[in-house]
Amino acid sequence: MSGSYGEELLRAALAGTDPNASPVTHTEVIPAAQARYGQWPRWLDPAIVAAYAELGLHRPWQHQVVAAEHAFAGRHVVIATGTASGKSLAYQLPVLQTLLSDHGTTALYLAPTKALGADQLRSLSTILAANPDFARLAPCTYDGDTDAQLRQWARANSRIVFTNPDMCHIGILSGHHRWQQFLRQLRFIVVDECHHYRGVFGAHTALVLRRLLRVARAAGADPVVVAASATTADPARTLSRLIGEPANEVTDDASPTGERTVALWEPDFLPEVTGENGAPVRRSAGAEAGRILADFVIEGARTLCFVRSRRGAEITARTAAGLLGSAAPELAGRVAAYRAGYLADDRRRLERAIADGELLGVATTNALELGVDISGLDAVIIAGYPGTVASFWQQAGRAGRRSAASAVVLIARDDPLDTYLVHHPEALLRKPVEATVFDPTNPYVLKPHLLCAAAELPLKPDEVDRLGVAEAVNELTDEGLLRRRKAGWYPAVGLEPHADIDIRGGIGGQILIVDTSTSRLLGTVDTGRALSSVHPGAVHIHQGASYVVDDLDLGDGLALVHPEEPDWTTSPRETTEIAVVTVVRKAEHGQLHVALVEVTVTSQVVGYLRKLPGGEIVDSVELDLPPQTLPTRAVQFTLTPESLAAAGISDANLPGALHAAEHAMIGMLPLVATCDRWDIGGLSTNLHADTGLPTIYVYDGYPGGAGFADRGFEAFAEWVAATHEAVSSCGCEKGCPSCVQSPKCGNGNEPLDKAGAVTILDVIGRAADVSGRN
Ligand SMILES: Nc1ncnc2c1ncn2[C@@H]1O[C@H](COP(=O)(O)OP(=O)(O)OP(=O)(O)O)[C@@H](O)[C@H]1O
Hints:
It comes from Gordonia defluvii. Keywords: ATP-binding, Helicase, Hydrolase, Nucleotide-binding. This protein is α/β, with parallel strands linked by helices. It folds into five domains: about 5-30 and about 255-425, Rossmann fold (3-Layer(aba) Sandwich), CATH 3.40.50.300; about 45-250, Rossmann fold; about 445-500; about 510-565, no CATH class; about 570-774, no CATH class. It contains 25 helices and 29 strands. Strands 1-9-16-15-12-14-13 form a seven-stranded mixed sheet, with helices on both faces. It has a seven-stranded parallel sheet with strand order 4-5-3-6-7-2-8, with helices on both faces. The chain is globular. The two termini are about 30 Å apart. Bound molecules: adenosine-5'-triphosphate. Adenosine-5'-triphosphate (ATP) binds near residues 57, 59, 83 and 87. Adenosine-5'-triphosphate binds near residues 57, 61, 86 and 373.
């Protein structure tokens, strides 16, 4: 192991650090894998085989053939294999064969981002260029950037259209009569990177896909869905939930990979810097990444460094270039930043520079995680756990040529989940990847889509029964939004439901964020989140640039901002109350009761804290804003006062202990559900009116819920065990951002009792039958 290439690189990065206080918590060598080849399918035209051969692609890997066979035989299939395992070829084979042999057929390709759609179009165009006869497929992009003329041309002439769920909803489905010819001939729907469809975005996309299948079938087609995904648990179930029909999966990856050394890295605490309530603060993952990037570049390693934010990517690249400027000036110009938001030409130029080695080090946001065909690098640095195990592997997979060794370094941020993972490599490296969580039955998402479906084609009674949506349809009818006629349900006259849905915008209305210095629209934020994210005085980051909010007008749906780069960031202070509406499911474990409940969360932003980048507090500012309510789903857990007293928790310690346990549970839910801690919220109280007991709630931050609380309820034992482990093993004394402090606490992280939280989590863990781990 000591001789591996990755270990050599690591040694270079560790040179000069105290060997007794190494930041590396774990290293592991993942051995190389040999290619397993299959045969080109018998149904495949030799001209297609010849086109691939011209690109240097002579034999398919086994998983590519298995997936292609499913799709060609008319079975929905998802191929869930590693990064750069050739998933594109797997969907291209059946699509190309069908479209080239039958002139009356079309295909639709959907990607979660425009950039990926454009990349896939380019990749297909290279194959088509190999044979003049293939040009008749006329592939074309159809997204927000496509002009009206080209849109019309695409509808009439293109046999394979590259789009995204947003445009499919607003451009294709809302005007499906204009797309009749294309839809009637639709044989394949390709859903690329389908693990990205999670949370509310996932629920919206699921309903768009179901509507697409519905109108295609009504037009006389019967399309097959071919999906590609990063490795996730249960991919067939995920695809099946996305499209509402059974699906097959292909998961046995037969592509070759070189040896890969994975290192987990925990930055040290910064001496003499303290954060909220005097807590110790670790060196930031971005700063550490910049240093390691410089070391790797000096070693001649072509390195990609993933950083969570656009601004972070710029800073990391600058840090590395600065360090190189003094250590190896000739290399300083060979490091750059890459992020979404750059112009297409700049992106292409950077991609080429990375591919041909002109650039040695690139700091990037996850813009380079998705699909873009850059692989074969010597090293990948990941500054902060990217949120899901699937994303981790996707990013890590950019390292490693087919036959050469490579290194991957994950640097923990100051956060309980990151800290837990670098100390529990098995949870990251050997755990089955999490399943994608989303909930297409959430009535707040479902009902607007039912209105769209009814506007597209009247909803038939048998269809309503088959889809199990009778309750939602009846409610819409009672609300006067749907009208029952002989042929089925129609939307009320004058209703234009498509425009009301923003596939990525969450649920409910949107607030527009406008820069008053230029009158430019910067973006939007959900009404439900506006008070906590764009309240007056809030620092708002947009594409790396910083703005300060002057005014928030909920009535007009406007947040007015001006450009300003203050030294601090802001975090809202909030009060929250929860009322239980119904208990959906419950589990009793002696003194511990766990329930999945429907709740109404009432919250009010009462002020905000201004914090320096290191975590130090500048001051706290009061605000006078109205309360807001959120109907959603929550996991509720209660303990009896007797069980807490028996565990030694006094009444005085209880609020801090519950509050700290709640924070840690929120921080760790992403381990079992594919969410971000910003997607969820929590409340703890030593006496809750609805339970009469000390209670903790962890709730979904979206109306109707996004499926995260449901998942937390299902995986409760695993979730609480990991949380207990994370808090009890954290090296700090009284609580820090790596365990019980929360970056989004509405109470300024007061009160928090770390030791009490460990006790409570232990009591809960034992009761939930996961004791004996410590
Ligand atoms: N059978 C094969 N033999 C050799 N090279 C192949 C084969 N199939 C695909 N490739 C090459 O592997 C690279 C990665 O392929 P592709 O981009 O389709 O992978 P992917 O699984 O879609 O990647 P991502 O995880 O980024 O979505 C491409 O350069 C492609 O040409």
